[in-house]
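Exercise 3.2. Students should predict the tertiary structure of the chain below and write it as structure tokens, then compare their answer with the key that follows.

Predict this chain's 3D structure.
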Amino acid sequence: MYHFFIRPENVLNDFIVIDGTDVNHIRNVLRMKPGEELLLSDGEGHDYTCRIDTMLHDEIRCGILSASSTGTEPSVKVYLFQGLPKSDKLEHIIQKSVELGVHEIIPVQTARSIVKYAPQKLGSKQERWQKISESAAKQSRRGIIPRVMPVMNFEEALACAAGLDLVLIPYENYKDIKTTKQILAGIRPGSTLGIFVGPEGGFEQKEVERACAPKEKHGADARQISLGARILRTETAPLMLLSVILFGLEE
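Answer key:
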């Protein structure tokens, strides 16, 4: 069954209106017809199984067959603070982390980030990244479309992370795997979690120290963790950590 997202205000009593670019996709790409069924999510935790009733030029009206709470969202909201990588690696990270269950992605310009986007290009970049998130959310039957935030510098990212319940920063020089397992085992449903991942070359030591500083000193009170004996690429580390954390919390 095809999956689309709609705005909550488009849910009207016993029917739902689909508008925007999805109209063309449903009619001309998928070639769906009245009577066919699809799954619609409002991005606020509600899923609707619907049947297409009417297909107009600029909208499609669907009758609601059943409604339910979204059952695909993780019990923990994970915010990924990803150091800007080279090439199109960030697109891969966005796609796969959305499939795994990330709640929000924050690209971060760090000391070792090689990529530096011109301000006039950031808008189009973010728009593309958001479309990748939406596509991945549809494919994986997510109940929300995770937001890809504008690129932040490291200080802005720390300020954003300071409001979360727990912040983790994998660091290759931290070797205590036993404590790492204890920290991960202590993550509880309903909490908010930040994960900082460095670009190629990782974080500078002073960045790690800055992230681990207390919140009252403008740090994020982050906890260093180990991802094991092997050094992982920047595009591998967040996916490995998301897999471990979110699978462990599945019910």
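Discussion points: Helices lie at 21-29, 89-100, 119-139, 154-161, 177-185, 205-212, 237-248. The chain has seven helices and 13 strands.
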